[in-house]
Design goal:
kinase activity; 23% helix; alpha/beta; 5-stranded mixed beta sheet; 9-stranded mixed beta sheet
């Protein structure tokens, strides 16, 4: 069984990285919360602006620097902040390259901030990065002010109750098989096809929700209304 936290982290992880990327800027309290549970802070391109405005310098910046304001980039260079500059024309996003760097440097889990925003293509692409990396046993948890999202594969998971709603979205085109307990809408040995909304917005009814995923993979969310 994998016991997750309210924010869907695996508490057994001893080496966790933080990646701040260039979507909707995370709030200073959310950044502080993430930094407290992470051991290294990497920014992808304009994600560095959030930290700069808080007077914080990241451990590393990766990106083509096309969306980071020139004056902020100049100040970061003056601070001797370590930087990896990527070409503007490349096959993968700055976010994916930064994630690969963290896992290549033995971080066991990554918290991703700024992964959603006004660009739906980037938001959807970042969601599926959770699936792509997760299928390689490289877990990512994406946070914003009101949501936490994690990819899960077959196994037994427990999530502590909170005032958030719990949702699952199948990401396997063959659907998923699962059982749910500790929730207002329990299920036992249910088959849920891909592309269905059956598992959206469940409520906690006991101190812990239990998710037994027997087949397929999915996105797990805990969310509250803004």
């Amino acid at each position: 069984m994998i016991q997750l936290t309210e924010t869907l982290l695996n508490p057994e992880v001893t080496r966790r990285g933080l990646l701040i990327t260039g979507g909707r800027p995370p709030s200073p309290p959310l950044i502080d919360q993430a930094r407290q549970c992470c051991h290294f802070t990497l920014c992808a391109d304009s994600g560095a602006a959030c930290l700069f405005r808080m007077g914080i310098f990241p451990d590393l910046i990766i990106g083509d620097m096309d969306s980071l304001a020139p004056d902020i980039y100049a100040e970061l260079q003056k601070s001797h902040c370590q930087t990896v500059v990527l070409p503007t024309e490349k096959d993968y996003t700055d976010t994916q390259v930064a994630l690969e760097w963290l896992f290549d440097h033995d971080y066991e889990e990554v918290v991703l901030l700024g992964g959603t925003g006004s660009r739906w293509d980037h938001s959807a692409g970042n969601g599926f990065l959770l699936t792509g990396f997760g299928r390689r046993n490289k877990p990512i948890v994406m946070w914003d002010a009101v949501n936490a999202m994690r990819y899960i594969s077959p196994g037994h998971y427990r999530v502590p109750a909170s005032d958030h709603r719990l949702s699952l979205v199948p990401t396997d085109d063959a659907g998923i098989g699962l059982s749910l307990s500790g929730l207002y809408y329990p299920l036992e040995g249910a088959d849920v096809p891909f592309g269905q909304s059956l598992l959206i917005s469940n409520e906690f009814s006991e101190p812990y929700a239990s998710i037994e995923l027997m087949r397929g993979d999915a996105w797990l969310f805990v969310s509250r209304d803004a």
